[in-house]
Structure of Alpha/beta hydrolase:
Amino acid sequence: MQHRRTRFLAVLGVVLALLVAAVTPAAASYRHGPRPTVVLVHGAWADGSSWARVTSRLIDDGYQVRVPPNPLRNLTTDAATIRDFLSTLSGPIVLVGHSYGGAVVTNAATGNPNVKALVYVDAFAPAEGEVIFPLAGADSALAVPPETVFDFVPYPGAPAGDVDLYLKHDTFVTSFASGVPRSQAEKLYPAQRPLTLSAGFTPSGPPAWATIPSWYVLGTRDLIITPTAQQFMATRAGSTVTRISTGHLGLLTDPGPVTAVIEQAARAAR
C-alpha cells in the first residue's frame, strides 16, 4: 500500500509540473527560446513617455522593454544613436518605431542580426534615398506651407538654414493629437520635443524592412501620416498590417491593440 501511495504521489508531481510548465510564461520562453527584448523608439514632437501605456502592458506580460531617447536631430545620426544602443543588448530584439521613429528603426536595424522583427506604429517606413516629409501623404496636415503648421526656432550650432520645428498649437491639438481628449492634448502640447528641419529631409539608407519581417499598425484616422500613405509603405515593406480606428497617437489612445501587434511580432521572432 505504501509503495502504491508513493508511486501515485510521484506521478501526481510529474503531472502538476507539466501543468505549471504549460501555463507559465517563463517556462514557455525556455521551450521556444528567450523572449525578445522590445525596444520602443518614439517619434517627433514626443518623447519616451508616449510609449508609457504600451510599456506598462508589455512589462505586465513578462517582456523586457527599453525606451531609449530619440535625439530628433538628423536621420543618419539618430539611427546611429539607436544602432549603438541596440549593440549593447544581447539576444533577440523586436524593434518598434512610432511616426518619425519608424524611419529611425528602418535605418538602425540594418545589419543587426539580433533584430528579429520590426513593428511600425503610424510610422514612416522609407525606402533608400527617400526623405520623410513627402511620405506623409498629399492630404497630410503637414502638406501645407510650413509656416502655417510650424514654429521655427534657432538652435546652437545649427547648419546654415536649419531650425528646430515645433508644431503650432492648433496643429498639435487638432491634428497631431487627434483622438486624444482635448484636456490631455493641451497638456502634451507644451512639452513637445522638436524635430530639426534637416532631419525631415535627410535621405534614408538601405531599409531594414527589406530583410527583416515587419508588422504595421495603421491608424485609419491619422491626419499626420495619412492612411493611404501608411498603406503604401506597409505594402511595399511586406508588413503584416493591422488597421485600428485611431489618430496619429494610437499608442496613447488604444494601447491594447498596439501591444497585441508587438507581442504577435515577438512570438514570431521566437
